[in-house]
Amino acid sequence: MTVAAAVGRRWRGARLSAAALLALLALALLALTAGRGGGGSGAGQPGSPPPPPLPPGLREELRQRRRDLLRLEAAAGGGEAASGGLGCGDLSLATGVSVLGWGFTKVVARAALAGGGAVALKSVHGAGREVRQCVLRYGAPAGCRRLAAYKLLKEVTLLQRLRHPGIVQLHGQCYDNSGDPEIRVTAMLELGSPLEMIQLLQTPWEERFKICLSLVELLFYLAHSPLGSIVLLDFQPRQFVMVDGNLKVTDMDDASTEELSCKEDNDCTLDFPTKSFPLNCSAAGKCEGINEKKNLFNAYRYFFTYLLPHSAPSALRPFLSDILNATGDLRYGINETRKAFEKVLHLYKSGLYLQKRPLLLKDYISLKGFRMVEGEDYKCWPSYSHLGCLLSVHSAEEAATICNSQSQCQSFIITQQRTWTGRPLASFQSSLTDLIPDANAVIYVKRSASSGERL
Ligand SMILES: Nc1ncnc2c1ncn2[C@@H]1O[C@H](COP(=O)(O)OP(=O)(O)O)[C@@H](O)[C@H]1O
Ligand SMILES: [Mg+2]
User: Fold this and answer.
1) What confidence score (pLDDT) does residue 375 get?
2) Residues of the signal sequence (predicted)?
């Protein structure tokens, strides 16, 4: 059964304790934001009078949203879609509900399932800007919440059809249409944590590159999706979350599969606050590649410019500036961008970017069978550990170059830990006081240090 079809039916089932909790949380948010005219109508509650008819303007908007939803489902082939398996029963048993965040349309909470796993619950934010603006216009809170619910249903429909590591996974859903005109929808999603751009700026380049690469893979998928080329109309860092160190888009209600129609090239200008791009109108009357280009420029302006260039390995900088220039003026499409990213990844993983450097490892003595006691030592940036200087390296040779460039560094070891690219982490030290035997380890000590007073 499709979502739109099911919305036409009535769901009878267990009491929705988690859903009720979410509704309460949304009300608490309403009190906090002190929105005017945002109160509930109580429609559908036992004993309350039948709701007044909806204003014609709102009825028309509702009709349009329902039509869009049906169109989307038809484009997606209709019928059964993967919905993840969780339903109202699981929601009724969920506990420990706490709000994670909210946007204009939805409020998101974390909850623990009976089986022990944790999920993110998304529902309509009754005090959010979308509902409040609608209420100001039409004075019909329940109808306005229904309008917002259609957006969440659209998101659910898209998440059912789109499967990609860069898209948050839908675990299930629960909807209740018994409170006509309201539809209560709760989507159960993979739990993530909101994207903290400031924090990301402080992470090692390799981690920031990973985020940009994941985004490129996502945009490549969206450009070639089973539903056609999909554009994210509200493309901002806050529409993404991190799940196990991976970037995933979570807000899909403003995604569109429509490409702008046109009669001539003049109809196809892609406008951003700082730049405009003239595009071509195809023979089929569509602005060519407009969805793909819009996503790519947004990725450039919100992600690449901040995350890609700074503290990148110097030999990779020309390649990264090429990517920035070519995406910033839309000379590259997503296919070329993906190729360029793959090239950088290859150069980085293979260590080819290190060629033509003086070899410095010869200035170090290797002590096999020892490692250093773990403890605090001097800090460096951007270290993988806050206790000391732990950096990703290609080889002991690169670690020697790094050690030579840091005045406090006297020795280093290559640890067993690996980053996502498979590179080892090297731990740099300023002293050689606490050595312990370890058959698998090697300590590299600066010759100047071993002959000095420190040993
Ligand atoms: N799966 C999730 N895990 C953790 N937090 C999430 C998840 N999905 C959304 N959020 C948080 O909730 C906020 C609102 O969700 P979003 O889908 O963007 O709603 P809106 O359509 O109202 O903008 C997001 O900005 C994000 O911080
Ligand atoms: Mg959002």
Assistant:
1) 76
2) 1-35
